[in-house]
Design goal:
The protein contains 7 helices and 20 strands. It is an alpha+beta fold and about 350 residues long. It has an 18-stranded mixed beta sheet that branches. The structure holds zinc ion (ZN) (2 copies).
């Protein structure tokens, strides 16, 4: 039996080196207060942050390659800054040249937004990176923020989490389509896009979405074979490998506060697997998901919903090969998404 260890982190964070408001000391302190084990910062076309252990949190740096035309690309495991090209394929190739990997950021921001936050999109879906940020918390909020309605503005800031709806349908279709075309798992992450923007139009300057708040929303619960090492370079490798393989659950911490009580397992007669893994089909292959509280759980096989149940203990006897993944909602609000598990 394989024992896996979980750790919690947030991906896609902006610092003072691009359009975020905090330095790495303040950001890592917010991460510590929010109970995170690791964070990945990704400034727009910048690679200046010094990575390492800050306030007991592993701070890993990436870059958000940000061309003018869209195609924001989250680059991981690179060694030096990538100068952005307006050709997204070139950006992907440049990441690979450094031995890194990259995810499409917020690919489907809405064109029908009722605010001045211009949508940034992944225009041609035939350009395929190594994975997708299928859920970006700030884009999700901004897609539904109506700055033309004074009552809505107050609501949207006081009850920020109520605007959140999760993965956009087009993004889900893209993710499933590539998974159906590929033999291996095409992984997904949840991104925060934390900026902690400061607005000073009022008497008292206001920080919109402070880092600590952002760190308690969209997070990634990763699973590793060993506990995260206390050595930075080893821990960094563990985190990045888990993300690259899809060994993570995308979590809405506002709806799932007890992440330690989330467990996912597929097992057969000889071994067990987590999301992002591959496992052989035999007569006793089964899938279990346990949650801290009851929620609406849907099981997908190769992109098609095959089972729904409102429960905190989900069980399914697997009799078919394919890619299995789970989506959990509380009504309209996302609770978590798993990466696919490949049953062969
Ligand atoms: Zn972006
Ligand atoms: Zn961003």
């Amino acid at each position: 039996m394989i024992t896996k260890y979980s750790s919690l982190g947030v991906i896609h964070i902006h610092t003072k080196f691009s359009d975020g408001s905090g330095d790495i000391n303040a950001i890592s302190l917010a991460a510590k207060k929010a109970g995170l084990d690791w964070i990945i910062v990704s400034d727009h076309n910048d690679f200046s942050v010094e990575e390492g252990i800050y306030n007991g949190v592993f701070v890993i740096k990436g870059e958000e390659i940000s061309p003018d035309i869209g195609y924001h690309t989250l680059a991981f495991d690179i060694n030096e800054k990538i100068s952005h090209s307006e050709n997204p394929t070139e950006n992907i190739e440049n990441v690979h040249k450094q031995g890194g990997f990259c995810f499409a950021a917020h690919p489907d921001e809405s064109d029908s937004r009722k605010n001045s936050n211009k949508p940034i999109k992944w225009l041609d879906k035939k350009v395929v990176p190594d994975g997708i940020e299928v859920w970006n918390w700030f884009s999700d909020w901004a897609n539904r923020f109506n700055s033309r309605d004074i009552f809505h503005i107050a609501y949207a800031f006081l009850f920020r989490k109520k605007l959140i709806r999760g993965i956009e349908p087009q993004t889900r279709m893209w993710w499933d389509r590539i998974n159906n075309e590929m033999t291996e798992i095409f992984p997904a992450i949840a991104g925060s896009d934390a900026h902690a923007l400061k607005i000073s139009n009022y008497l008292i300057p206001v920080t919109v979405f402070p880092y600590e708040y952002c760190f308690k929303t969209a997070a990634n619960l990763i699973f590793t074979d060993e506990p995260l090492s206390s050595d930075f370079q080893t821990a960094k490798k563990q985190v990045l490998q888990a993300i690259k393989q899809g060994n993570n659950i995308l979590l809405n911490r506002k709806k799932c506060k007890k992440h330690n009580e989330v467990s996912l397992k597929v097992k057969n007669d000889s071994t067990s697997a987590f999301c992002g893994d591959k496992i052989n089909l035999d007569a006793n292959t089964e899938l279990r998901l346990n949650l801290p509280q009851k929620a609406d759980i849907s099981l997908y096989l190769d992109g098609n919903e095959i089972k729904y149940e409102k429960t905190d203990k989900f069980f399914h006897n697997i009799t078919e090969k394919g890619k299995y993944r789970i989506e959990v909602y509380n009504g309209k609000t996302p609770v978590l998404y798993t990466n696919p598990i490949l049953v062969v």
